[in-house]
Specification:
Largest sheet: 8 strands, mixed
Shape: globular
Distance between the termini: 73 Å
Strand content: 5-15%
Strand order of the largest sheet: 1-2-4-3-5-6-7-8
Number of helices: 9
Order of helices and strands: HHEEEHEHEHEHHEHEH
């Protein structure tokens, strides 16, 4: 039955039982308004999470740093563009997952300096961000990130291993991949335990059962089998350092926590985070060769 037939059927039924049709109108209106209200509420947290995303390619603005476009096809037929610089001198490749605005220029600027030192760099492109098609969601971002890492492996574009680096929302994606793969290391900047916990922290009046997006790093952090660097800001009110402290306790043998005095949500590198990241990467790099020798001495022949 098409929509016109449905309306006709309703009208015909009403002419036979006029009183019943009239009495149902307020009920139907109230039901519709309730459904619409519930819909608005349930998409509210996700709207807040994704509303400020960059929808143009920030590289169109021009930058002195040269990166290669890296395109991948998604499971649902989209073509997403990321940005890649190959590693040099047996360095690892850093795969960066941005925060909720998708900024891959300003906030990860320190990674460009590392890439100039020979580290490989992949700036992961999100669907719906940076000129990419599609609409973001937690599960789709996970699938896209998984496909990106698989393509890196298939094309041997990170021959000396991968360091997963997530900032804010991106820490939820990085932790998801880290718990399911074997990275050389993981850096989580401005991490949180779960998106539900962030909403509870910043929007206390919102019922948490409305929050569908999880980004539940807490549930999988103990499964990460690689060194993890946690970078927290003492004055961060979005992802307070208590989140990083809770995560560190879940994987004490592998997690290293730095809380930077005076740092807020997006300025850790003005308060000493550069030294922490550089030292962490140097430690991973120095440990890589002995690990290869122990695992397969013949590989060095």
């Amino acid at each position: 039955m098409d929509m016109q037939d449905s309306r006709d059927a309703l009208r015909i039924k009403g002419t036979r039982k006029g009183f019943w049709r009239r009495s149902r109108i307020p009920f139907l209106i109230a039901s519709l308004m309730g459904a619409l209200g519930l819909g608005v509420l349930t998409v509210g947290p996700e709207y807040i999470l994704f509303r400020d995303r960059l929808v143009f390619s920030i590289f169109d603005l021009g930058t002195e740093f040269v990166l290669q476009p890296f395109d991948q096809r998604t499971h649902d037929g989209l073509t997403l563009r990321s940005w890649y610089k190959p590693p040099q001198d047996d360095k690892v490749t850093i795969v960066y997952f941005a925060g909720r605005d998708g900024d891959v220029i300003r906030k990860p600027r320190h990674l460009f300096d590392l890439a100039e030192q020979g580290y490989g760099l992949m700036l992961a492109g999100y669907r719906g961000y940076g000129g990419n098609p599609g609409r973001p969601s937690e599960e789709k971002l996970y699938r896209d990130a998984t496909a990106l890492l698989e393509k890196l492996a298939e094309n041997r574009l990170a021959p000396d291993g991968i360091v997963l680096y997530g900032y804010s929302m991106g820490t939820g994606i990085a932790s998801y991949i880290a718990a399911r793969t074997k990275p050389v290391g993981v850096v989580l900047e401005a991490p949180f335990t779960s998106f539900r916990d962030v909403v509870g922290q910043t929007a206390r009046s919102m019922p948490l059962w409305l929050v569908r997006t999880r980004f539940d790093t807490r549930s999988r952090f103990a499964s990460i089998d690689a060194p993890v660097l946690l970078l927290a800001g003492e004055r961060d009110t979005v992802t307070p350092p208590a989140f990083a402290e809770m995560l560190a306790k879940l994987n004490e043998s592998l997690a290293m926590l730095h809380i930077f005095p005076g740092a807020a949500h997006d300025d850790r590198f003005e308060h000493g985070a550069w030294d922490a990241v550089a030292t962490f990467l140097e430690g991973l790099q120095n440990a890589a060769l002995p690990a290869v020798m122990a695992a397969d001495p013949a590989s060095l022949d």
